[in-house]
Amino acid sequence: MIKVFDLLNGARMTAAYAESCLAHGVEAVHITLNNYRGINPVPDLRHSLNELAAYRAHLRTLSSLVQTVEDADDFDRARRAGKLGIVLGYQNVPGVERDLQQMELFHALGVRVIQVAHNIRNLYADGCAEPADAGLSSLGRELVAVLNELGIVIDLSHVGDRSGLDVLAASKHPVAVTHANAYALCPNARNKSDALLDALKANGGVLGITYLPPLVRMPGETPGVQDVVAHIRYAVDRIGVAHVGIGSDFITDQPPERYQEFMRKPEVYGTWPWRYPIDGLEAQQDMLAGLQDIGLSRRDIEAIARDNFLRLFRTVMAGMPAAA
Fold this sequence. Notes:
Elements: E1 4-6, H1 15-23, E2 26-32, H2 45-60, E3 66-68, H3 72-81, E4 84-90, H4 103-108, E5 111-115, H5 138-150, E6 153-155, H6 161-170, E7 176-177, H7 194-203, E8 206-209, H8 213-216, H9 225-239, E9 244-246, H10 266-269, H11 281-290, H12 298-317
Parallel strand pairs: 1-2, 2-4, 3-4, 4-5, 5-6, 7-8, 8-9
Helix pairs in contact: 6-7
């Protein structure tokens, strides 16, 4: 069985789902705190703290099955204990506004991933749906420096192209795109341009290929497993095996009403219901095993499924620099 570190999993984290993850090779997942009890892509400070408190309390009820990952050794500790590693993150900056020193509080409470913008503009950067496609603000540059200093992984999944390039140029640590695909194959605003992919490689970062249907093929088209594989192959050819990972964006057992806000942007998110080309953990294993058919070795597949993102997290948590 191929071991997986899923860099964005939106499934309802129940005991049954944690057990299923472990049974199907998933060793760690990154979850989104601002989507825990409902979708909130622009969380204020109160909401951010409430959701963090609620999710930490929820994880305590699953303590026999899961372990929060707060340092690099926690990945190994969770594995040895037979537990699912949980990485806590936000898909937008969690309401600190200009008080960037408050990010220390979120770090102390276990947050290890922060996205600098989610689709629309905030104080720091432009999201991918902003037509101006502006770059990082001066405050955004300060934010990058603070996240680097704290050892928090920066995520660019929903960030606009120019802002993303600015982050990659400014960050002293490798940067993640936890869940997006190649714009060249699917020209959705959420996907990443060749220029950004090239900069991600130069930075030492990793792209998490996602199964979310409108990011695999454009809204209105029906994606299949072969389309996910095509994105993996494109990324491997463009930036190399060492810079490709998996960010499924699974939403198993989540109620459909959570996603109605996203349905207001059909050009980005398509229409409900989403029909995933890889529709579960067993199918994920089948897809990964099948990557040998495009010439990838077992070691290459293991790197894509788990090891590349493990390397990135260990590097950032240890305060090591990005690639030259």
